[in-house]
Amino acid sequence: MNTPSPHNHFEKHQHAGLSLTAEELIRTQVALVGNPNVGKSLFFNYLSGMYVDVSNYPGTTVEISKGRFGEMDVYDTPGVYGISSFTAEENVTRDVVLRSDVILNIVDAVHLERDLFLTQQLIDMGKKVSVILNFMDEVRLRGLEIDTKLLSSVLGVPVFTTTAVTKEGFDAIPEAIRQARRGNQDPDLHHRLHGMLAVAGSEAEALLILEDDEDVAARHGVQPGGEREEMYVERRNRVNLVINAVLSERGIQRRLSTLLGRWAVNPWTGVPMLLGALYLVYLFVGTLIAQDLVEYLETNLGNGLWEPWIRGIVTQSIPADSWLGTILIGEFGVLTMTVTYLLFLLLPLVIAFYLSLAVMEDSGYLPRLATLVDRSLNRVGLNGSAVIPLILGFGCVTMATITTRLLGSEREKRITTAILQFAVPCSAQLAVIAAMLAGAGFTSMLIFAGTILTVFVAVGTILHRTLPGKTSPLLIDLPAMRMPRMDNVVRKTAFRTYFFMKEATPWFFVGALAVGIMQITGLLSVWQEILSPFTTAWLQLPREAATAFVMGMVRRDFGAAGLYDLPLTSDQIVVALVTITLFVPCIASLMVMLKERGAKEAMIVWFGTWVGAFLVGGILSQILI
Amino acid sequence: MSHIPLHKAKRGSILRIEGIPEGKNRALLLRLGILKGEVVRCLERLPGGTIVLEKNRQEIAVGFTLASTILVAVMTDEH
Question: What are the respective helix, strand and coil percentages of chain B, to the nearest 5?
């Protein structure tokens, strides 16, 4: 048999049952499982330390982290509310749980109602479970009391308490893993499982089949059990009983975090809060990073140090004006421009954006923002969750296009990608746009913003009306607003930045290579020739603007910057900027779109932006000029 | 007591869930503890009908399209 080793390991466990001896265990497989935002990754970091292997789960785009702790392999799973297969994340968590020996279930002690459903389900699956109640500090602050001894005896598994912020209780985590054991299943459930056990091979899988998990049923060639509803209701009732028994309140205090949470979703207070948050992000990313830091890095390190140095090395063996020289170290050289762009422009911006996102996420603000804008986004066929990629798009459209993965359906991914590629200017471009519009005056600014917003809404609305299917509704839990923990924010940012760079970097090189080849073969100037009549007659712009549009295909800011030096009237500035904003995305984001959305869809969007940009820009020109 | 769709609930009102349509969303709601007979509070109603519910200490946002399919009975009015 040619199955990978974890699978062999898993099968051995199945056949050996769950009473494992030391020899049978090569390495104990431990899964950290919990609802979203319960601080799981902090426990994972504590256990795994430096030795972390983060990868996409086979066959999916869901990230999974694996670490080592002594004789154990530890897995961090995506946060879920239950073990089932409603989303790609759930599929991954389900499969990791199925193949694990021990489940360390992290529970938000403030939200027992929500979290214990998953806990009871893990116990019902017949897994060895240990429960960790996290956020005990907040439990105390809110005047709640949890009888952990009683909870442990009702569930039949050990219960430990921690405060992740101070790492209080963390030293007991190894003990928690060691003591993990099978908990108290419902006696009725036990009988029901028995019937399915012969088919499924393990209690865990038998349970999932009974609960209508189609994937697991299909793996065993049986029909789903059709008992999901009944079993969920029973489990819910059981959890409610447990909570009534173990939880007592000493009067709920309305703390600042609760108030902030309420304000964030109320439009009267939420919109000013959003504007405030965006302004802070703008100050940080737009001013500090994009202007000051990037300018310094790009000019001094990129153009000043790196490019002359690499040119010097390359020209020792390859003449600068040869075709290979043009590709390697020319104007759009793979070794010159691309390296400078990636390291000194894109990397700082991506870090800054992911940092802002992580702060918003860990503070509990992001789900509230999604709630606030849900109804508005419904109009363009999206739900509130799409606010994340859309905001990221103003940083880097390539990064945002990758982030569309977190959306619930193909339809929503499709609409969001199209909006991003058509109507969202990335930060590289925004700086130039802002500078040019500032010179053109306030009216020009309004016309520009109004036109782009109209296109944004139009693209979304048209797709929403024409694409089959329905928008998935918003249904999210709003976790308490908390002060984000800095080390977690930094770690998240580092992971995401690493992944983005790993995935996007090759495409930037491929893009530069393609443009280099176009330059050598003369295709680039042919393209400029083709575009120039459109530019002069239809858009009523100087002939040179055509060059800027072609440059925009390489790097969007190149396009915008190419317009900077042209003598343009205010109206011409608006027309030129609208056209270049709507015009094709940069070559890296085209590549990522090809990968994420497939060739056909990517090409439709790409050519669509050509038509859209020249159509809207031309109409605007005919009206204004 | 008359039943209304959830998206029409008033802010601050106490509601009893009376009906949730079949399908995937029903299972998702079930897991969050929102099922027939449960009593919840409407914490916020945004313009357009996005609803924020409170059940014990848990806050759940329900989009308009889903909220409009859930039937509730209003147990108190105004708060």
Answer: 20, 40, 45
Assess whether pLDDT exceeds 80 at residue A470: yes
State how far the Cα of A463 lies from the Cα of A421, in Å rounded to an integer. 14
Beta strand pairing call for A102-108 and A28-34 = parallel
State the residue for tokens 């048209």.
Answer: A462
Burial A534-556 (b: 16+ CB within 10 A, else e): bbeebbbbbebbbbbbbbbbbbb
SS3 of A214-234: the string is HHHHHHCCCCCCCCHHHHHHH
Which residues of B fall within a CB distance of 8 Å from A110?
57
Please indicate whether, in this complex, the C-beta atoms of B57 and A384 are within 8 angstroms of each other: no
CA distance A592 to A601: 12
Number of separate domains in chain B: 1
Domain of residue B62, residue span: 3-74
Whole-Å CA distances, A33 to A495, A516, A583, A595 = 20, 48, 44, 31
Tens digits of residue pLDDT in A532-565: 888 888 999 988 888 788 777 777 777 777 787 7
A19: tokens are 């009473």
What does the block give as tokens for A137?
């500090």
Among candidate residues B43, B11, B14, B73, the one with its CA nearest the CA of residue A478: B43
B9 falls within a domain: yes
Residue B43 lies in a domain: yes
Tell me the mean pLDDT in the region A596-611: 91
Q: What residue ranges do the domains of chain A occupy?
A: 24-184, 268-624
Contact A478 B46 (CB under 8 A): no
Q: A273 and A263 in contact (C-beta within 8 Å)?
A: yes
- DSSP symbols for A229-250: HHHHHHHHHHHHHHHHHHEEES
* Contact call for A236 and B66, based on CB within 8 A: no
Q: Residue A233's closest chain B neighbor by CA?
A: B30
User: What are A434's two structure tokens?
Assistant: 């802002």
For residue B79, being part of any structural domain is answered with no
Question: Closest by alpha carbon to A588, among A403, A407, A436, A401?
Answer: A401
Residue A222 burial (10 A CB sphere; 0-12, 13-18, 19+): middle
Report which residue type is found at A387. Answer: V
Query: Alpha-carbon torsion A281, A286, A287, A290, what sign?
Result: positive
- For β-strands B3-5 and B14-19, DSSP reports them as unpaired
pLDDT mean over A613-624: 92
Cβ atoms of B61 and A371 closer than 8 Å: yes
What CATH number does the domain containing B50 carry? 2.30.30.90
Minimal Cα distance from A235: which residue of B? B31
Tokens of A502: 């790993």
In angstroms, the CA A525 to CA A91 distance is 50
Give which of A135, A374, A377, A387 to mutate to test B binding, by max B Cβ within 10 Å. Answer: A374
Three-state secondary structure call for residue A47: helix
Q: What is the CATH number of domain A24-184?
A: 3.40.50.300
What is the rounded CA–CA span in Å between residue B12 and residue B43?
5
pLDDT in tens, A42-75: 888 888 875 666 666 665 557 788 888 888 889 9
Residues 6+ apart with CB under 8 A from B50: A371, A374, A375, A384, A474, B7, B61, B62, B63, B64, B67
Give the pLDDT mean for A561-589: 86
